[in-house]
């Protein structure tokens, strides 16, 4: 009887909390997260905006309602023996200023109350962007310079003029690309950047982006900013999405993609989220192979308790993609396509073929590398980890996030696509043959059909070639390109531990960040004989002088000078250890002071093989008539070792004054550091001792900003100053005398940028939203010198050129985004205008890339409760804007060589540019449940 009484009393003492959630326009909101603390029980609103929490014991609670795009609402509730009915109205948060952010801070914080320059892209904004890669999405974030003209990878992303070492093959040099608070990749080096291992799909809930500022003390070796892709979290009911997409781009090239996501409670406060995608993409430009194919799978498993949570997560990425090279242009003042090429459709990539190229690392064992340009870059990433967050009592809190990943990136593609005239002896000597002079025959490799037969005997005396048959080569040239084979591998382990304690008005956080990465890098280049035309063909080339044996300058597929252009074989271990201390001090109800210190130590330890041409009569195969295997570079057995430490202290201090519940101003000063990446050792010190460590770059930034949030108008604005010092610069050069590629000595320079960023949203009338963001800035190369190698490794004619005071290259003085969005009942639509201002293509300020505009649009319709359709159009008016510049159209040329003097002396010379990707249209069908 006593047991029955106790149970009956318990049942009677439990109540239900239920109600309805609408926005201020009276529209019922589905999917609002409703959480009751301290029980941590939760649910989401249904299609009628209704929610219900059952079996709530008597007591005092806080009910929290959160929904992306709306201000978080908290309500104190006292539960007695009666059911409680509460209806709520959520106010729109146009810039997410009233929402909690987790990036660039050691504790979750409402954005309006933080002293950082932060932008947020929610799931709806992400779905408005045509799926062309991570960098392409980030163009919507104010103050972020993005070059995504090469496709999904080989992209550049930076902010506030902190850009000098962000090269095309390491375009994320200063910023951290993160997933759920940890870097996608710990190490960076040439052709191994984090965009290789990141793809977007329905598993992403939002993106938080911080420009400079507190990144100096909250990120591992990434003071330029953080772009954190946050995965979907707890789903309080079984739900999900399946999206099927089909699109057309360029000249009838197709994209097919399927995305899926599902989330569900599992009982006993366990929750599961899982999803991913698979795609087949022909690409925006014309190739004779599928440009991208593959996908990823992600999941997380969360256990929630009254004091926090434990989360297990994993990702499997297995993806093939490629990247575009430049297009030839003439007319320095108004670039137009040259040699029959097209800014919209030409790719100039090698066609698909299968070859086996000797592996310089193990020639004696007969080793070889399979090579097919259609494979592009095969990126694989297996990552798994766990995160924990627990309140320990007495105002102590512990967080830890640990991740292990194993990565590989295998490149099989072409690099460079320069014009090489048949009148240039380089076209024949680059084959590796001793004296390829006389009658040269070019056959189409695929069919074996002879295309042209020439006599090049006069080229050594500066005379033109003579055609000996009716056939000719397109543009009387071949393409200066290389069969580019790379093997990158990395095993990485990273962990971030924080412990915080609230003491009076202080929230003090200390912690330890660890990162360890074991890397191997192998790079081998062979020359490829390819026609110089919009749809290149491989060429089988032979020297057929009368009464002499036929000399094969290429193999049957058109590959020549096996492994003779360059050779790098290196291994390196990277360890990054950082300890940090942060004090978030609420001086008063309105004033908050944020002080952070970070001490970081980085160790690079590894070795690099010395190499020399493999010497054997007749080359590798012993046949003197096959010249293409005569110059293979191979290890000599000697290694150059390196073992260097980089230690530095960074700090950041910010103060935020909350003027009222809707507005605040902040001020922040930061001093960050950027240690060299592994490319410093891999790209330099060719066959010489690695006896000097790289310089740590210094980044000083000051910013003052204002934030304002109202129901129909919100904006943020930040005035900033940034200075980057100790910038090491070197050029990629080609010596025509000995057919070798080399990097020039490193010089150290300084840049400074002053600018104003802003982000604003306005709803003039119900159902229409206008967004406007951008940056105006003044980027300067305050101290800048370039090493001029005069086109050879011989240093006797070298000189240093001073460009101090010029405008900093590849930094526009203005970038803006303007959009208008419409949403009513079942219909939605938007149109966006992206403006990119003029930029100089080099620090010499010899060539200026013109400004351009891109318009994107979309429209959607809610067919029924579960099914919706959307159409997206990117680059609606097919802009021919130029995103990048590679200098003169000659093998081994660089952008820095196109000085004003060079352009004046060569007005008819062609040059290489990167046009933006052309128009693409996508139809999406999404089923939600």
Automatic annotation (TrEMBL):
TonB-dependent receptor plug domain span: 112-226
Entry membrane topology: Multi-pass membrane protein
Main location, first listed in the record: membrane
InterPro entries cross-referenced by the UniProt entry: Beta-barrel_TonB (IPR000531), Beta-barrel_TonB_sf (IPR036942), CarboxyPept-like_regulatory (IPR008969), Plug_dom (IPR012910), Plug_dom_sf (IPR037066), TonB-dep_rcpt-like (IPR039426)
Alphabetized SUPFAM superfamilies for the sequence: Carboxypeptidase regulatory domain-like (SSF49464), Porins (SSF56935)
Ranges of residues in domain TonB-dependent receptor-like beta-barrel: 330-876
Top-level division of the source organism's lineage: Bacteria
Keywords noted in UniProt: Cell outer membrane, Ion transport, Iron, Iron transport, Membrane, Receptor, Signal, TonB box, Transmembrane, Transmembrane beta strand, Transport
Ranges that cross the membrane: none
Any single Pfam family the record assigns to this protein: Plug
Family of this protein: Belongs to the TonB-dependent receptor family.
Stated name of the protein: TonB-dependent receptor
Source organism per UniProt: Aureibaculum flavum
Lineage, top ranks: Bacteria, Pseudomonadati, Bacteroidota, Flavobacteriia, Flavobacteriales
């Amino acid at each position: 009887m006593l047991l029955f009484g106790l149970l009956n009393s318990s049942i009677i003492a439990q109540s239900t909390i239920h109600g309805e959630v609408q926005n201020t326009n009276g529209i019922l909101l589905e999917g609002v997260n409703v959480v009751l603390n301290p029980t941590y029980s939760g649910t989401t609103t249904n299609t009628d905006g209704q929610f219900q929490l059952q079996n709530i014991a008597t007591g005092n609670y806080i009910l929290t309602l959160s929904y992306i795009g709306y201000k978080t609402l908290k309500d104190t509730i006292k539960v007695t023996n009666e059911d409680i009915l509460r209806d709520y109205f959520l106010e729109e948060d146009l810039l997410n200023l009233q929402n909690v952010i987790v990036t660039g801070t050691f504790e979750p914080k409402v954005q309006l109350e933080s002293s950082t320059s932060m932008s947020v892209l929610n799931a709806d904004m992400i779905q408005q962007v045509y799926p062309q890669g991570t960098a392409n999405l980030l163009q919507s974030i104010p103050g972020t310079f993005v070059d995504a003209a090469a496709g999904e990878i080989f992209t550049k992303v930076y902010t506030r003029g902190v850009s000098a070492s962000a090269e095309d093959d390491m375009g994320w040099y200063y910023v951290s690309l993160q997933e759920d608070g940890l870097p996608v990749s710990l190490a960076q080096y040439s052709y191994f950047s984090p965009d290789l291992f990141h793809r977007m799909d329905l598993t992403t809930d939002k993106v938080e982006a911080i420009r400079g500022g507190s990144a100096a003390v909250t990120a591992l070796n990434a003071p330029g900013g953080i772009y954190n892709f946050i995965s979907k979290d707890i789903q309080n009911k079984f739900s999900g999405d399946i999206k099927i997409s089909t699109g057309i781009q360029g000249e009838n090239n197709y994209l097919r993609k399927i995305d899926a996501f599902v989330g569900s409670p599992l009982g006993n406060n366990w929750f599961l989220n899982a999803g991913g995608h698979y795609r087949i993409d022909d690409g925006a430009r014309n190739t004779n192979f599928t440009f991208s194919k593959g996908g990823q799978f992600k999941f997380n498993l969360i256990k929630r308790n009254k004091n926090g949570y434990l989360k297990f997560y994993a990702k499997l990425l297995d993806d093939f993609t490629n990247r575009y090279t430049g297009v030839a242009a003439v007319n320095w003042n108004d670039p137009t396509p040259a040699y029959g090429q097209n800014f919209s459709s030409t790719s100039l990539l090698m066609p698909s073929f299968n070859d086996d190229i000797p592996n310089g690392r193990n020639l004696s064992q007969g080793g070889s590398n399979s090579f097919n340009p259609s494979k592009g870059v095969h990126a694989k990433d297996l990552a798994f980890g766990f995160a924990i967050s627990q309140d320990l009592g007495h105002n102590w809190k512990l967080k830890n996030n640990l991740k292990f990943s194993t990565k590989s990136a295998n490149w099989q593609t072409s690099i460079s696509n320069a014009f090489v005239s048949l009148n240039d002896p380089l076209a024949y000597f680059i084959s590796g043959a001793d004296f390829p002079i006389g009658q040269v025959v070019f056959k189409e490799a695929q069919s074996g059909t002879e295309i042209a037969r020439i006599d090049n005997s006069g080229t050594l005396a500066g005379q033109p070639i003579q055609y000996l048959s009716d056939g000719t080569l397109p543009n009387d040239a071949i393409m200066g390109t290389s069969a580019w084979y790379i093997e990158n591998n990395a095993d990485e382990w990273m962990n971030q531990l924080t412990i915080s304690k609230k003491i009076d008005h202080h929230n003090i956080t200390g912690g330890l960040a660890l990162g360890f990465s074991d890397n191997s890098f192998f790079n081998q280049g062979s020359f490829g004989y390819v026609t110089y035309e919009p749809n290149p063909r491989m060429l089988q080339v032979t020297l057929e002088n009368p009464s002499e044996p036929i000399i094969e300058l290429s193999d049957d597929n058109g590959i020549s000078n096996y492994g003779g252009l360059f050779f790098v074989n290196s291994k390196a271990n990277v360890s990054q250890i950082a300890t940090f201390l942060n004090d978030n001090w609420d001086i008063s109800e309105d004033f908050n002071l944020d002080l952070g210190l970070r001490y970081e130590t980085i160790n690079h330890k590894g070795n690099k093989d010395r190499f020399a041409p493999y010497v054997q009569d007749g080359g590798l195969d012993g046949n003197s008539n096959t010249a293409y295997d005569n110059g293979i570079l191979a290890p000599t057995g000697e290694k150059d070792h390196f073992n260097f430490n980089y230690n530095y202290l960074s700090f950041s201090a910010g103060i935020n004054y909350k003027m009222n519940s809707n507005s605040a101003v902040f001020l922040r000063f930061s001093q960050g550091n950027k240690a060299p990446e592994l490319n410093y050792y891999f790209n330099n010190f060719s066959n010489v001792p690695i006896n000097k460590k790289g310089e740590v770059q210094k980044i000083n930034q000051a910013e003052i900003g204002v934030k304002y949030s109202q129901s129909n108008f919100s904006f943020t604005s930040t005035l900033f100053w940034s200075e980057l010092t100790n910038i090491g610069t070197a050029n990629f050069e080609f010596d025509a005398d000995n057919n070798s590629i080399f990097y020039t000595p490193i010089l150290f320079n300084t840049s400074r940028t002053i600018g104003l960023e802003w982000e604003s949203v306005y709803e003039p009338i119900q159902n229409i939203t206008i967004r406007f963001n951008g940056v105006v800035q003044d980027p300067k190369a305050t101290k800048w010198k370039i090493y001029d190698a005069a086109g050879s490794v011989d240093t006797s004619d070298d000189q240093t050129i001073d460009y101090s005071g010029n405008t900093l290259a590849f930094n526009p003085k203005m970038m803006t985004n303007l959009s208008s969005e419409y949403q009513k009942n079942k219909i939605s639509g938007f149109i966006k205008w992206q403006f990119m201002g003029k930029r100089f293509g080099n620090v010499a300020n010899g060539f200026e890339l013109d400004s351009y505009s891109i318009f994107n649009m979309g429209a959607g319709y809610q067919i029924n409760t579960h099914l919706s359709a959307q159409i997206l159009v990117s680059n609606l008016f097919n802009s021919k804007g130029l995103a990048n510049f590679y200098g003169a159209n000659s093998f081994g040329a660089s952008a820095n060589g196109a000085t004003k003097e060079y352009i004046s002396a060569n007005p008819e010379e062609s040059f290489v540019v990167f046009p933006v990707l052309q128009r693409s249209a996508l139809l999406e069908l999404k089923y939600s449940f």
